[in-house]
UniProtKB/TrEMBL annotation, chain A:
It holds the Pfam family Bactofilin. It comes from the Bacteria. This is Cell shape determination protein CcmA. Belongs to the bactofilin family.
Automatic annotation (TrEMBL), chain B:
This is DAGKc domain-containing protein. One of its GO terms (molecular function) is kinase activity. It comes from the Bacteria. InterPro entries: ATP-NAD_kinase_N, NAD/diacylglycerol_kinase_sf.
Amino acid sequence: MFNNKEDVNVSVKDAETIIGPSIKIKGNFHGQGNMIIEGIVEGSVKTMNRLLIRDKAKITASIEAKEVRVGGEVQGHIKVGGYLEITSTAKIFGDIETSEISIERGAIINGKINMIKEVKNSEKKQ
Amino acid sequence: MNIYIYDSYVGHKKYQSKIAKIETRITDLGLNGKIIRLGVMSSIYNSIEGEVQKGAKNIIIVGNNNLFAQAINSVAKLKSLHTTVGDIPLGLIPIGKKYNSIAEYLGIDYEENACDIIAARRIKELDLGMINKYYFLTQATIPTKETIIEIDKNYSINITEPGEIIIVNLPMGIELPNEIKANAQDGTLELFIKTKKLNKLLLNKNKENKSVFSFKELQITNPKYPVIIDNSLKINTPVIIKIAKEKINLIVGKGRNF
């Protein structure tokens, strides 16, 4: 879904949470819908849907989501069930666990990348 | 029976001809009912409670935002206390344009033209926000300065720029980010934080920063400023804000903004 810029725009047309640049969150931030982070988060971030971490965002937290696009700074473990897109402005200090990944030239990653197999719905039923 | 509750200010001379026209139109449309003229010391809650017990069919406020907000509070409170209170609809005949933004949002025309909207009886069930023991239809606002917000007891929010905090039920007169779809029929409230970085050199070019959170319950504390609900009532903090169990039935116009 995050394969090209057009798709990214489509994915954030309907968001549940927007953390703007003037906001600092402390604690366990868990949601169900799409999230956009442009500010600072300390603690943990979890959503059943998509997470967009914009260029100026600073996150010191563990992250868990269905699909993630990272453009900002993340210090912590990233766990993605589906697709993880890392853009050129991203700085990641922590381990990554995902089933699909793309990394743009210029991105900084300090940590292990562990590729996991995505469990599809049809497999779950069996 | 239709119950018309007149705000005290509509008794002023300058509204006499308007009220006369409204009463004529009400008669023409066959919507006659009982008129209650509120004095400065009258209690709208007691008036509504008495009439509901006598079997009122519609409650119509003749006034502005202020009395309409009080009527919403009274009906919701009655619903919470007495299960026998049905879904009695609340209507509004707005008098004067100055403090009647809620009417505009609900698509209700001013003065005598509002009578036709009452006659059409187009009813919408809307959510209400609850702040301590008060109900609100539209929004609750407070400045960001010295405000502490705690959401669902899981995390806290620190706001680094000056601005305004708005708890949104009915998004009236505010521009939410395009990605957010909020309305008063979705069973949730939104916390909307609007800030602007102060830069004296670029006074008009400062970009507004917007943040939005959905929540079930939040607590607001501010030692200096109160929370203002529906642009009319001030409530001192600390306050707990959540979606109310009670909903309200409002008579709305075709031109409503939702």
